[in-house]
Amino acid sequence: MSDEETLKIYAAQAHDYAKLTRTDADSPDLAAFLAFLPQGAHVLDLGCGPGQCAAHMAQHGCRVEATDASPEMIALASAHRGVCARCEVFDDLDAVNRFDGVFANFSLLHAARKDVPRHIAQIAQALKQGGIFHIAMKTGIGQSRDGIGRRYSYFCEAELEEMITMNGLDVIRRNHGAGIGLSGEIADWVVLQSRKL
Predict the structure, then answer these.
(1) CB-hemisphere CA count at 13 Å for 76?
(2) CB atoms < 10 A from the CB of 163, how many?
(3) CB atoms < 10 A from the CB of 180, how many?
């Protein structure tokens, strides 16, 4: 279930968030994700935000579907050429063996903590055999709100890897770092990229 307070914040600050994330498409993590995919891959950007990464994937030759629970973010994402964007929550994902890749870049961290295992299972089901799953999450313990009121669910790397592997995926790349988000707070993060066996 989407968190209404989080959605209100993104509605009010959609353009600020787009400015903050304008260089996300230059990420080495996105480059690595694309390198794992076949030419012309069918990709889902799950929680696409303003759509910069989805646009970069489309420019790279991918067939891109992009979803986000925020209508304001979908409006921004839809403005990018080659991006098919629609307003959906994580629970709307019911595809089976459909995608060559699912890109969940700092999006699932807004789901309720108890729901994240189910969402990862949905993603695994949506991937074709050999498909690539990218997840980026802030690391930590529990669930709380940041300084501007957005809900965050935190996991340690081992917890995330366990949820991934129990759904038939094998972690093939990982990255770690820290950064400043929309709230101005610094947070540690982890990226795990895995392949469906």
Answers:
(1) 24
(2) 20
(3) 10
- Tell me, what's the pLDDT at 26? 86
| 115: nearest Cα among 23, 24, 3 | 3
Q: Where are the alpha helices (DSSP H) in the chain?
A: 4-12, 14-20, 28-36, 52-59, 71-78, 116-126, 157-165
Specify which residues 170 forms β-bridges with: 195
Give per-residue burial for 118-130: e unless 16+ CB within 10 Å, then b.
Answer: ebbebbbbbbbee
pLDDT class of 177 with cuts at 50, 70, 90: very high
Domain range summary for the chain, segments of one domain joined by +: 4-196
Does the structure show a pLDDT above 50 at 34? Answer: yes
Residue 158's nearest CA partner among 148, 166, 150 is: 166
CATH superfamily of 4-196: Vaccinia Virus protein VP39 (3.40.50.150)
Q: Give 158-167 pLDDT, tens digit per residue.
A: 999 999 999 9
Beta bridge pairs of residue 99 = 127
- Backbone φ and ψ for 156, nearest 5 degrees, come out as -85, 165
Q: What values do phi and psi take at 182, rounded to 5?
A: -60, -30
pTM exceeds 0.70 for this model: yes
pLDDT digits (tens, 9 = 90+) for 59-118: 999 999 999 999 999 999 999 998 989 999 999 999 999 999 999 999 999 999 999 999
Nearest to 91 by CA among 61, 56, 74, 67: 67
